[in-house]
Specification:
By secondary structure, the chain is an alpha/beta fold. The protein is 20% helix and 27% strand. The strands form five sheets. It has a three-stranded mixed beta sheet, covered by helices on one side. The chain has a three-stranded mixed beta sheet with strand order 3-4-5, with helices on one face. The protein has a three-stranded mixed beta sheet with strand order 6-7-8, with helices on one face. The longest helix has 17 residues.
Length: 267
């Protein structure tokens, strides 16, 4: 079963952390409605959505991806790069323990899950303002017994690695080369986002089986029509979705869920 861990939009989201975006007012009700539509999209694609309790005092808590790295064998709970966000990991760890053994990174490591792009047993980890070299090395050590390869990727001019690149299936990475160093991506086809849609490289691949038929769908913000058209022309199945209010909080489509395969936990 495909599990998607999510959390509602915090009523304090207007106090969110911002690094590269200018502050804009966020309509909390509209953001909540967009997040609800996002969850419905995941359900329609076969995921079981596990929505956690709202965190009124944690403005960025809707962006659950940053609070964990989940692979087949374990869930890794990081020390998040922004100190204000570190309490978010408590609720995430409590939810994930039903599905995976937990491993914890330790200070002085910092790491955000949005900096981790997994492709099979390879993990590309962004060296960003939120993830440091100690965090990358600790993640490598935790995952080494399970034969995962961890490679550091330099990130600039964007918040996380997956702000600037995403695996979209068919051995292809959607990328903004102005924001990430692509030298680690040898062997993959690189699909460049249009210059006028610099933020479009954050896309969410859902690999699912519906009614016995495997279907891979790429969720892309509807704000990027050129990117959507480009992917469709290449044969990708694309699901546009409006996340405009959450984009004001430097969010995308990957960061609002933690998605993994698992059996139903024992009750």
């Amino acid at each position: 079963m495909l599990i998607a861990i999510t959390r509602p939009v915090s009523p304090s989201i207007n106090r969110c952390e911002l690094t590269f975006h200018d502050k804009e007012p966020i309509d909390v009700s509209k953001a909540a409605a967009q997040h609800g539509a996002y969850e419905e999209c995941l359900r329609a694609l076969g995921a079981r959505v596990v929505s956690l309790a709202v965190e009124p005092d944690l403005p960025d808590a809707v962006f659950v991806e940053d609070a964990a790295v989940v692979v087949d064998e374990v869930a890794v709970i990081p020390v998040m790069g922004a100190p204000s966000r570190r309490p978010e990991t408590v609720g995430i760890a409590a939810a994930l323990v039903a599905y995976r053994p937990l491993k914890f990174l330790e200070s002085p490591a910092t790491l955000d899950g949005g900096d981790v792009m997994r492709i099979d047993r390879r993990l590309f980890v962004g060296a960003s303002s939120r993830t440091n070299a100690v965090g990358i090395e600790q993640l490598r050590a935790v995952l080494a017994p399970f034969c995962y390869e961890v490679s550091a990727v330099e990130v600039s001019r964007c918040l996380h690695l997956k702000s600037g690149c995403s695996y979209v299936g068919m051995n292809s990475i959607l990328v903004n080369r102005e924001w990430v160093d692509v030298t680690q991506f040898a062997g993959f086809e690189l699909i460049d986002v249009p210059a006028e849609e610099a933020g479009a490289a954050n896309a969410l691949l859902i690999e699912t089986v519906l009614e016995g038929v495997r279907e891979d769908v790429v969720i892309v913000p509807s704000a990027f029509p050129r990117t959507i058209a480009m992917l469709e022309a290449r044969g990708f199945a694309v699901q546009p979705i409006d996340v405009s209010e959450l984009q004001k909080a430097e969010g995308g489509v990957t960061c609002k869920s933690i998605i993994f395969s698992a059996d139903e936990p024992d009750s």
